[in-house]
Amino acid sequence: MRNIINISLPEDMARKVEREVKKGKFASTSEYFRHLLRMKEFEEEMEKRREDFQNGKGIKLRNVKDLFR
């Protein structure tokens, strides 16, 4: 299920999003923001794993896919 969320951006930020979409880096404005949210989630997960590692709770990886389990 999808929800529609409307946001207001300063003009310079809106132009940056439009430029990235026009360059073909993203299929749409929505995809641009989905990408940002995915990156934020990834950063939060990596920070949690760093903290776990520093606290002696690291995990042993067999391959890169284990990072996402």
TrEMBL record:
Ribbon-helix-helix protein CopG domain: residues covered: 5-39
One GO biological process term: regulation of DNA-templated transcription
Pfam families assigned to the protein according to its UniProt record, in alphabetical order: RHH_1
Protein name: Ribbon-helix-helix protein CopG domain-containing protein
